[in-house]
Amino acid sequence: MNSLVSTERYLSSSVTSATCGKIHVVPSKAVWLLFHGVLGLTGMVFFPAIDAFTVFLILTAVTICAGHSVGMHRLLIHRSFETTKAIEFLLVWLGTLVGMAGPIGMIKTHDMRDWHQRQKDCPPHPSHDTHFIRDAWWQLCCEFKLERPPQFILEDRVHFSRMYSVMERTWMLQQVPLALALFGLGGIAWVFWGCSLRIFVSLVGHWMVGHFAHKRGQQGWRIAGLPVQGFNLPRLGLITFGENWHGNHHAFPHSARLGIEKGQTDPGFWLITILERIGFVWNVKLPDSAPPREGLMRI
Fold this sequence. Notes:
Layout: E1 10-11, E2 21-25, H1 27-46, H2 50-77, E3 82-83, H3 85-96, H4 103-117, H5 124-127, H6 132-141, E4 142-146, E5 151-152, H7 156-159, H8 162-169, H9 175-186, H10 188-212, E6 221-223, H11 237-240, H12 246-251, H13 267-277, E7 281-282, E8 296-298
Antiparallel strand pairs: 1-5, 2-4, 3-7, 6-8
Helix pairs in contact: 1-10, 2-3, 2-10, 2-13, 6-10, 9-10
């Protein structure tokens, strides 16, 4: 099971249905978002400070780039490179600090969305096929539950990992040690900016990239026969750390490099390259490291 790529973790059967289901509100997601949104706004209004803003920028960059993009997405989900267990756990833990979910929850959510988008019929929720406000509500505060879902099979290296099990059970609580450290170093302003505002901006920003990257933009490739296509969002490479090249990612989901063409900024891959040069990362996969996807067409 260790060679699985994301969409192979969900196995369909004769009774599986990609469309029979309902969208349900998840109270914990809504409360989590509202809580950090209110505290983040409180920090901006009542505790404006350059040092708190700097903490916000640094922690957002570290957790989104090293944690979410490199650790969670390119390593844990797609296994687009290899590294030591210690570095893997560090990168994924930084991804957990983003505040979206634990490592197993991230795999399940990401892979279910990808499974939906590779079916003949994809419902509006996983395809972002609705207007801006409704999609925000659906993605940030709800989930789409299928009546007859595919079977989820997690590879052994994650399923039997005690570290990932702990991260999964305590992913919200992982903010507490960071909040205490920030409070000790900079007071309540650092907590509001470095924890709550960072989490709120990260969650909303992640949704917005997903929303627009499935709507419109630049396209270098198309996957024939699929109802949902990915699009690149030019000029957003630095602030999304390369996750804006979603059209490229649809074309080459195994690749550690997302900005694969000239001028496509990809800070996440820069970090992987640095780690590779100092010997911490190896077997880095590129677009030509695997056979082309079925139906892949150059535009």
